[in-house]
Amino acid sequence: MTVNPSSAVPFASASAAGGDAFIETPVAYDALVLASFGGPEGQDDVIPFLRNVTRGRGIPDERLEEVAHHYRHFGGISPINDQNRQLKSALEAELATRGIDLPVYWGNRNWGPYLDEAFTEAADAGHSTLLVLATSAYSSYSSDRQYREDIANAITQAGLEDRVTADKVRLFFDHPGFVRPFQEGVDAAVEGFLEQGIAASDIHVLFSTHSIPTADAERSGPRDVDWGEGGAYAAQHNAVAAHIIENLAAKTGGTTVPWQLVFQSRSGPPAQPWLEPDINDVIATLPEAGAKAVVIVPLGFVSDHMEVMWDLDTEAMEAAAEAGLPAVRTQTPGMHPAFVAGLIDLVLERVEGTPAAERPHMTDLGPWYDVSRPGDCENVRLGFKPAAAGIAP
């Protein structure tokens, strides 16, 4: 199979090569590639893994060791790889239940198994028309474009340019299967505090996501839309949070529970602006705002990986205890049946060419695009690199 160099979208299937925002014609994909971040699986893996994550930035091992203590605390093991093994199995089971013959391969960006290994394994098994499902729901460089760059790089590194095509499942931040576990978690947490006699107006819900450089956030999403402060990244999170709070009102007698989008896991130099406010700073101010309880929602995360276990379950819960506030951290989608089923629904959108007007979405921002638009999620520091599943640059 030869990739047409004049295609608007490199490495794409014939249906997506022209660059239409939504692909509404069926595509006979013959394999699914689960793409994720990757993580260390032992103490000896931690620094090599962090070198991979920060490659090209020239960060010395001494500084990496400052971050490594999060992983060291848990024996040098990130839970993300095991979670992806479970997710791969769950996806295979869901496909089998529906009678869909679509093998699933798994590759990571920063630790084994790597993406190029997954593509090579698929190609060697005779598969050529691949659909990539990334474990990331929102628009930003690190959660969208970098995956697309790594897909293109993996195909090139493996020498598969003439053997495979690769499309990518759309971002699913407002797909019902992704939103439902968060809704259930918030509903249960608030209901629990109500049963304790805490008024709805005194329960504060903090929707937390990974902070990113402000300059990158401003460039998230298509360039022909004014997304406001924080770009499409913040807009998507705020839209989903608002939807959850609106649905919650049915359980609070119509009272709107106070809520806020907050950020965590900042890692850049102090002089570089990143999205704020930090979740721990906000928690410290809640008693003055009259809060009697706090619900912490890991809205930006698919599963309970290191940022959830350390930054929320450890640091944020400690901040709540110091503020004298009872706190509940709600679930991530993880292996929730609705999430697993929703991911397969997203795969079938591309297999069947479901018209955009028929695709489920819980906010006015969706459904998101199948093919990324030019300039979407630019990295200011690194510039544009070849990327799959989107129109250049």
Mean pLDDT: 95
Largest sheet: 4 strands, parallel
Order of strands in the sheet with most strands? 2-1-3-4
Rg (C-alpha, Å): 21 Å
Low-confidence stretches: 1-6
Query: How far is the N terminus from the C terminus?
Result: 24 Å
Oligomer: single chain
**Main structural class:** alpha/beta
**Principal-axis shape:** globular
Strand content: 5-15%
Number of helices, where a helix is a run of at least 4 consecutive DSSP H or I residues: 11
Question: What is the H/E string?
Answer: EHHHEHEHEHEHHEHEHEH
Percent of residues in helices: 25-40%
Annotation, overall tally of beta strands = 8
Write the layout of secondary structure elements.
Layout: E1 31-36, H1 46-53, H2 61-73, H3 80-97, E2 104-108, H4 115-124, E3 129-134, H5 141-157, E4 165-168, H6 176-195, E5 203-210, H7 214-218, H8 231-248, E6 259-264, H9 279-285, E7 293-297, H10 306-322, E8 327-329, H11 337-352
Parallel strand pairs: 1-2, 1-3, 3-4, 5-6, 5-7, 7-8
Helix pairs in contact: 1-2, 3-11, 4-5, 6-8, 6-11, 9-10
